[in-house]
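Whether sequence alone determines local backbone shape is best considered at the level of individual chains. We regard such an encoding as a compact summary of how the chain folds. The sequence in question and its structure tokens are set out directly beneath this paragraph.
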Amino acid sequence: MSTGRLTIDLDAIAANWRALDALTSATVETAATVKADAYGLGIGPVARTLANTGVRTFFVAVAEEGAALRDALGPGPEILIYSGHMAGDTDMIADLGLVPMLNSIEQMTRQFEALPGAPFGIQLDTGMNRLGMEPAEWAAVRDIAMRMGPRLIISHLACADDPESQMNRQQFRTFREMTEGLGVPRSISATGGILLDPRFHMKMTRPGIGLYGGLPFDKAASVVRLSLPVVQTRDLEPGEAVGYGASWRADAPTRIATVSAGYADGILRAISNNAVLFHRDTPCPLAGRVSMDLITVDITHLEGDPKSLDILSPFQSVDDLADCAGTIGYEILTSLGPRYHRRYSGTGE
């Protein structure tokens, strides 16, 4: 095989959902966020696994993702759309039974005029300044919205991955002030919020990254393994350079493996000369720049030439690799390219 093999452990995803669900009380529903093609891992297999594990409510970013999810799951599970009811979404929302989280007065007007009586939710901005109605805007339309019967009211924490941030408690207070006494289920917590404090759990949580093995859920089971085939090996003399810009030079006799993957496959160029790949449990340093289709790796210390090297494995998580690139695990996962051969292991049961 000339392309990398991306193995996705469905049993690990199911185990991570169960672990996050166990952190909340029996009165709290644990939903699942599967936007961005289930964080790059495949919305169909991942969502079907989660549905079989017990998830009844799913969140996606846009209506088109909701359509793909409905196709994968069929009727039954509730699918909520973070971006709300955008222009042009009406038929899709109605035909597929999607639930838009309305973010503005404009979206409320569109929903109530085009789909009177159809289910909807409300998203409120409590300080992140990204999506949702701000306090003054919400106060102006709250009574109208409540007469129409929202299914759920949500907000989103900006700093949930930092338990010490005062903004978490500030947003929580604002959310309670905006919604107290309305009698509608509320949700403010994704993965980070679940880990903060039981008070943040409210009636529903919406884990995302924690399902897929990423921080801040440091007890998550490893979900992905990415093995890259070795295309060629060669011996270098001291002083010889490797890759574009000759940014790496051998200071001793060196054996280099060239592996099939590059920034076209989501291997970020920022890890050049910094990251490691693994042969079983042995780290092998990346030598030179990441190019479009190829990476060069120092394998001098190995006893033989490997057929492949792992860049994601139990020995290197998405967050480990993200640290090398100066980014976050979310970007590593969602950048995984289409050329990989995707293989799903486990059943999720």
About this structure: DSSP finds eleven helices and 19 strands in the chain. Residues 135-148 form the longest helix (14 residues).
